Amino acid sequence: MPYFLNRQVKIRFATHGAALTVRNLLPTVTNELLEQAFSQFGPVERAIVVTDDRGRPTGKGIVEFGNKVAARKALERCSEGALLLTTTPCPVIVEPLEHLDDEDGLPEKLLQKTPKYHKERGQPPRFAQPGTFEFEYSSRWKALDEMEKQQREQVDRNIKEAKEKLEAELESARHEHQLMLMRQGTSSGQETVASLSFCSDFDDVSLQI
């Protein structure tokens, strides 16, 4: 990582339209494996597994291609098929990336080589073949992801409608409150006029006496 005035600095990469976000990554996936899996679509400039503050993988990754053609090819192939990175038939979900993070990801050297690691890394990245056990469960994973996406969209719509309704109720209540204050002001003014009129009549009577 570069230094400036003896201070460590991070460089933020700009989105150039050839970057994709990858979800459904298992904990045994590293930067190197991610790059290996997506290099079949074209030259990969950068591939990282997004980690949290403690360096633990979040299940998401970023793949930055050298050109838009490769990125589009990867997006189409992964949307149509089921790309598997490990032994478990859990396909990755690939989507266009809106912005790039400036982290280093999870390099292979930092991942502990546990028995689970060796089990999951027993097979190289591949597309699940139709009619196989892997393809069946990959399809179920993708269907589950689509259902989650639809439910999130429905929740967002419900929240939006609820906010719009609350805003309308607030505006109506504010209007009613203002009318009430105006009525109270008018009533108070009338009472003041009546009081002054009464006092004037009383003074006239006193003078006559």
TrEMBL record:
Record PROSITE patterns: RRM (PS50102)
Key word Secreted present: no
Boundaries of every RRM domain copy: 18-99
InterPro entries linked to this entry: NOPS, Nucleotide-bd_a/b_plait_sf, RBD_domain_sf, RRM_dom
Source organism superkingdom: Eukaryota
Assigned keywords, A-Z: Coiled coil, Repeat, RNA-binding
Pfam families: NOPS, RRM_1
Subcellular location: Nucleus speckle
A GO CC term assigned to this protein in UniProt: nuclear speck
Molecular-function GO terms, alphabetical: RNA binding
Coiled coil residues, start to end: 145-183
Protein name: Paraspeckle component 1
